[in-house]
């Protein structure tokens, strides 16, 4: 069985310069991993040509695609179905973020030293489109701390997720019933099905936060979907009444104007 694969979904909204930078950060890892890409629907021809040129060079080991855009969960599951029988570890990566050079090595060494852990994440560093530092976002470190934290918000940054294949044997693949909260529901399934979680107290990925980040998170429909999924997490994992208050507060923030969300995001996260 091979050791590590990084999976990434690419869709029409991705940018070629940012994708180059993201993949470049994977090429420069201190421990090398195979890279598998799934193209979700029709994308820019320049991006498609770039990906297949990288495939021919051997930098990308696999490319799959579907003609229609079916969503992130579908793309990730398509990659997972190919990876779980071949790789011991599976890492997530987004097409516009940057992995620190030591990311894969740190997570690999942690998992080798902690065979009881099924998924490990880490801290992230947010930065603007022009490269300016915004803030470091930290997460709880131990399984029990992460479970308690989950009653408020997600306990592991999806872009830092580094799975042992046992996670998917226990919890299955990403839920497809939610349009944008597949990670939240994945963590819910993991806790429900006995997976063990951890985070490493170091920045592992630099995450791009564009000016439109908060506007994209707006709208009553999206806010309602987020609230509905959060209530499912609370009920499934048996959190107390406080969790419902947090969910309601988050719903009110999500339906507020982008400027208000930006202010609260910087001060409360």
UniProtKB/TrEMBL annotation:
Residues 6-170 form the Glycosyltransferase 2-like domain. It holds the Pfam family Glycos_transf_2. Keywords: Glycosyltransferase, Membrane, Transferase, Transmembrane, Transmembrane helix. SUPFAM superfamilies: Nucleotide-diphospho-sugar transferases. The chain crosses the membrane at residues 243-260. It comes from the Bacteria. GO terms for molecular function: glycosyltransferase activity. Belongs to the glycosyltransferase 2 family. This is Glycosyl transferase family 2. It comes from Nitratifractor salsuginis (strain DSM 16511 / JCM 12458 / E9I37-1).
